Amino acid sequence: GSASCLRSACVPRAGRRAGRTRQTHMQDDPPPHAAEPAARKKKSRGARLSKAEREARREARLASAADDAAGGAPLERRRTALRSLVASEQWDAAAALGCESTVLALELLRALAGSGRERLLTHTARRLADVLGAASLAPAVEEAAAAHRYRDAAAIVRGVGVSGASCSSEAGGAGGGYSFGGVHELALRCFERGEVAEGAEILGGEPRLQLLALREMVSSRRAAGVAAQYLGSLSLLPHPAAAAEVALGREAASLLHGAPALAAAAAEAAEAIQAALRSAWPRAEVQPYGSGALGLGASGSDVDLCALLPGLPTPLSKQGRAALAAPLRRA
């Protein structure tokens, strides 16, 4: 007891008062888990908007688009603001401004094209297309393709979401007015210009796009020299039906068993015709060619022969054709 009194006496009055104050505050403070509710967060760009907010934004965008279409000082001020944002690489703010009108959207895409930032170009095109529609960005793709900047054009096409489609304004396809094919068409243009590496980068490792390009190469004979690189994409094709497999097997068997018989028949016919022609042209030679000579003919294939007749004038006169017909009839 005396020790407690001694400690109490040694503490100054002001100190005892401060200690009581600290005790009071500690008792009044809420526990850590009962903290005050956090301030309401600012709504992010991707948050769900109310109907009134969406309508207000739409009306503001339409008003801005009308001002931009009219041109004049308001458009120039907004263009200057956009160029300032691009120069300072404030891409989020630049995209937000570009979403307000097609004029500014195309201006922004032109600024990004040729910068080597294909991923940023794709992201920006996606954001612009979500607001303005894919068709409004078609001029940017056409301008890039006309300037042979096919990688930039492909980046925009990927952004608007029609990378594998072939769209046209007449068909009203998924591209909403595009007059060109998808990414594979841009890659084919690169191949046709001899820019094989750039075309391969555009197709990337996407087998679906590679298959579209391969189909076009085979059907239209475009850039056929690089078609072999994309034969692996054929694995995406559906498995053939049972009837088709049976028909294919029969054709393969016909080739397997019919080719030797056809080759023998071609050799026999060539020998007979050569012997007949040598009665009139001693140096005549007859050679088989085509599927029979290559061993690829089926049982119903015809026989192709080539007659070499040294000294025979060309083009053949009426008398020459008659002289040739006589030994052929004997053969």
UniProtKB/TrEMBL annotation:
Residues 14-23 have a biased composition (Basic residues). Residues 1-73 are annotated as: Disordered. Signal peptide: none annotated. Residues 62-73 have a biased composition (Low complexity). Residues 50-61 have a biased composition (Basic and acidic residues). Residues 267-311 form the Poly(A) RNA polymerase mitochondrial-like central palm domain. Coiled coil: none annotated. This is Poly(A) RNA polymerase mitochondrial-like central palm domain-containing protein. It comes from Emiliania huxleyi (Coccolithophore). The lineage of its organism: Eukaryota, Haptista, Haptophyta, Prymnesiophyceae, Isochrysidales.
